[in-house]
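User: Here's a protein and a ligand (2-oxoglutaric acid). What would the complex look like?
Assistant: Let me lay out the input and then the predicted complex.
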Amino acid sequence: MMTQSFAQQQQEFVRDGYTVARGMFAAHEVAAMLDHYMQMNIEHSHKGDVSAITEESDPLKRYPRLLQMHRWDEVSLQFLLDERIRVCMTEILGSEPYAVQTMIYYKPPTARGQALHQDQYYLRVEPGTCCAAWLALDDCDEENGCLQVVPGSQALPVLCTVAADTAQSFTDVTVPVPAEMNVVPVRMRAGDVLFFNGQLIHGSYPNTSSQRFRRSLIGHYVVGEAEKVYKWYHPALRFDGSVVTLGESQDGSECGVWVEQDGTPVVEMIGKTKAVGIAQ
Ligand SMILES: O=C(O)CCC(=O)C(=O)O
């Protein structure tokens, strides 16, 4: 059951960079998606992202995340263009966004998480940014590696990345977070949708449970005023499924690093991001 008004959600989204729409998807819809995506894992795991998987024993080898399924799977396309998501995002963003990506994370027991990052580092939307709709297909909390976010970090520019701890993360880059900013868990029930700004620092820690999966289905969108997005995210779709023609943003945009000013960490734009290795 959804409990908050769109106005409250928009307020939270603007203040914190994210908001959770509780119970947006019903239990029977989540159950049908779980059946569908577990079958997809059996049939299509060879198409999954195993770029960072080096050990046979890595649980992600059997359950790699899949990307851009909506380009060949109707259930994923329907999720990406879901009317509830369209209405909620249009309310919180102020205009209707365009859809550019789907991802399914299985995150089986003991799997690594994904180091803290900003999606805009990958999508490179111009002007503006991107936004995600992250649907929990399992109840998630710290034990099974729920999403972690840094409230307020959506106000930051894209930060320059540093090496991540690949014992904890299946991706190898992260962004530094000063001690003054908090990393907080987003505990969710299956069927809840987390909407977050593309500049928001987020990621997840390993699944420490021995039995629980932490499956999530994710749609990525670009704001309605966007004119360009990185090459891997074409074609962008309107919510009626038609293609909107956007330009391609370039490799190597500016990025910021933390410096201290009067004892306070501030971001200075002194770096340049490199070409990115894989869509996120
Ligand atoms: O689900 C996760 O652990 C990370 C997901 C993520 O980074 C994203 O949706 O952009």
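Summary: The mean pLDDT is 94.
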